[in-house]
Design brief:
Number of helices: 15
Helix content: 25-40%
Largest sheet: 8 strands, mixed
Strand order of the largest sheet: 3-2-1-4-10-6-11-8
Distance between the termini: 87 Å
Shape: elongated
Length: 598
């Protein structure tokens, strides 16, 4: 073996050295032989286009939510020129068709293709007991659904799509990476796990199935649903939103209609397709590594379209709290109804200037609720000085201490009291007959407006004399009785929180009349004292006329957005070390009670 070495050295100013070494391995000479090592040519990787996806959407009587459903679809971070949107709609009793046609005109140049077809026949429309169009299903409707799903599958194959994504129109893909995440799994059929706010035990997958092909609860279901175990898991059933990999050879055997010759079960699209997947030798998977989106719980057969729309409007407010803004498609005209105060003289929102995040969230909630609100700037406990407290004549109740933390009142709690106190004063000064008072960390329960109106109707129809009505609170002790003649009002026991309440002019006068700033304590302690249902007699003794007439909504219409110990919880009235300690004490008391019960 010999080496040939060539060295070239150039040293201008002795700063640069170029060394070139060429090594050749001597091999036997002969025809076609070379003395140099042969290296394969470098392979160049060129960027590839993303897989093509046909999004199949079947829509019926969904006018109330299409603006948001399509808004979420548009937010998917996937190249729209690689997406075909295939939509079929029929049998509508609302203006679903008109909305979809408007959207298709606007989105036609955005996606690779928008294929929309509609029919206004109402052959499959079911009516409820009042003669209204309802959400009921019958066998004819199931067969029709099967045929439409098969048409979508055939269309995807005709378009040579790599994947088909079925999305029901009441499923909201909030995570904008959902399509990407599903494709990354490289599974034959995979669904993103969707959550249902109205039913914590329902989702779009099954872990078990009985011998007749129906749902069967298994030990794996709840841990998967709660994400106690995370990943992509093989399951027996996925439905509502699912991705099918059409690049797999066996996918050609998948079908919705007609059913496989060996299928003997009920006429149901999800059961028939699951059977088809099994017969093709493929498997189904559910992905729950992240939060991907929400789905509406199935409405019962007696639910009217208006009730379904009202239910969604209530849930949408919850979505704003938990998942950020709810998008509206820019390709659909949206006109907001006029603002309304629901008969109240004013709706006050107490909010800190330094918490614009809460203010913006509440603005969106009020936009959806159509409330005309007045911002009442909260008093910031961080800025309270001793001089300022003295100027207002504020004096601490000498024998008060926090029942949990055994500490004096905080500046934050004083600021909270003053914030409500300022609202009471404005009610008195402007002689407002009835007002709604809300804090900026409240969460509206579904159907909030209708339930609030129904509650106030009971107050009026029963000619009730009232001063304050809790809409949200933390009940601390005892059972509570209904107010006579009502189904939505109870007499409240000792309670915490001032997250939301209705206040009358007479109630404001009573609350101010006791001069509470001269013996201040937290406002949610003051209210139970004033309606004379507080366990601490020594605190009650500071106030003479404890005759506030108080009721509470039942069920409650408001809750806080976060509780102590929740991720994202932050208190503006207590330092972190206080509410953490309070949470520990409460948890210890709860565990002790559980042990005693056992």
């Amino acid at each position: 073996m010999a080496f040939e070495v060539r060295i070239s050295v150039t040293l201008p100013f002795k700063l640069f050295v170029s060394l070139c070494v060429c090594i050749a391995v001597a091999e036997p000479s002969g025809p076609g032989k070379t003395g140099l090592i042969q290296f394969p040519p470098r392979k160049i990787e060129y960027p590839r286009q993303r897989p093509s996806v046909l999004v199949a959407i079947l829509v019926r009587n969904k006018a109330h939510l299409l603006k948001n459903f399509l808004g979420y679809l548009e937010q998917q971070d996937y190249p729209k020129h690689r997406m075909t949107v295939w939509i079929r709609t029929d049998h509508n009793q609302d203006n679903t068709t008109a909305i979809l046609e408007e959207w298709a005109r606007g989105a036609q140049g955005v996606y690779h293709k928008v294929n929309l077809a509609s029919s206004e026949k109402s052959v499959y429309t079911a009516l409820n007991e009042n003669g209204e169009a309802s959400m009921a299903w019958n066998e004819d409707r199931y067969v029709h659904m099967l045929k439409l799903r098969q048409q979508a599958l055939d269309a995807a194959r005709d378009y040579w799509a790599d994947f088909i994504l079925y999305v029901d129109a009441d499923n909201f893909l909030i995570n904008n990476q959902t399509i990407d995440k599903l494709i990354e799994q490289k599974n034959p059929v995979v669904a993103p796990m969707l959550e249902v706010q109205e039913n914590s035990a329902y989702s779009n997958f099954w872990c078990g199935m009985d011998e007749h092909g129906y749902y069967q609860r298994t030990p794996e279901y709840i841990p998967t649903l709660k994400r106690d175990r995370k990943g992509c898991f093989e399951v027996v059933m996925v439905h509502s939103t699912l991705l099918i990999n059409l690049r797999l050879e066996a996918s050609i055997d998948l079908q919705f209609y007609p059913a496989h010759p060996e299928y003997e079960g009920a006429v149901d699209d999800i059961l028939i397709f699951a059977h088809s997947v099994r017969k093709s030798g493929l498997k189904m998977y559910v992905l729950n590594e992240e939060f991907y989106g929400l789905m509406l719980a199935t409405a019962d057969h007696f639910t009217s379209l208006q009730q379904e729309a009202d239910r969604y409007d209530g849930l949408k407010i919850k979505y704003l709290v938990d998942y950020g803004d709810v998008p509206y498609s820019p390709y659909i005209t949206h006109e907001w109804p006029p603002l309304d105060n629901l008969g109240f003289d004013e709706i006050f929102l107490i909010s800190l200037r330094r918490r614009p995040d809460r203010w913006m969230r509440m603005q969106r909630c009020f936009q959806e609720l159509r409330f005309d609100i007045k911002w009442s700037e909260a008093v910031d406990g961080r800025n309270l000085t001793e001089e300022y407290r003295e100027s207002l004549g504020i004096k601490m109740m000498q024998n008060w201490e926090d029942p949990f933390g055994k500490r004096p009142i905080t500046n934050g709690e004083i600021g909270c009291f003053l914030s409500h106190y300022n609202v009471w004063e404005e009610v008195m000064q402007r002689r407002l007959g009835a007002v709604l008072v809300l804090e900026d960390d409240c969460r509206f329960e579904p159907n909030f407006v209708n339930n609030l109106v129904a509650m106030m109707d009971e107050v009026i129809s029963n000619n009730l004399q009232w001063d304050l009505i809790y809409l949200g609170r933390k009940r601390l002790e005892g059972t509570e009785n209904y107010v006579k003649g009502t189904t939505r009002l109870v007499y409240p026991n000792y309670s915490y929180w001032t997250v939301g309440y209705v206040l009358s002019l007479r109630g404001a006068k009573k609350l101010l009349g006791q001069k509470p700033l001269t013996k201040i304590l937290p406002v949610d302690e003051y209210l139970p004292i004033m309606f004379d249902n507080h366990p601490e007699e020594s605190w009650k003794s500071h106030f003479t006329d404890r005759n506030l007439v108080a009721y509470s909504a039942y069920p409650l219409l408001l809750y806080p957005t976060h509780y102590v110990g929740d991720e994202g919880y932050f208190s503006d009235t207590e330092p972190p070390e206080i509410w953490i300690e309070r949470h520990k004490i409460r948890m210890a008391q709860k565990q002790k009670k559980q042990r005693e019960e056992l």
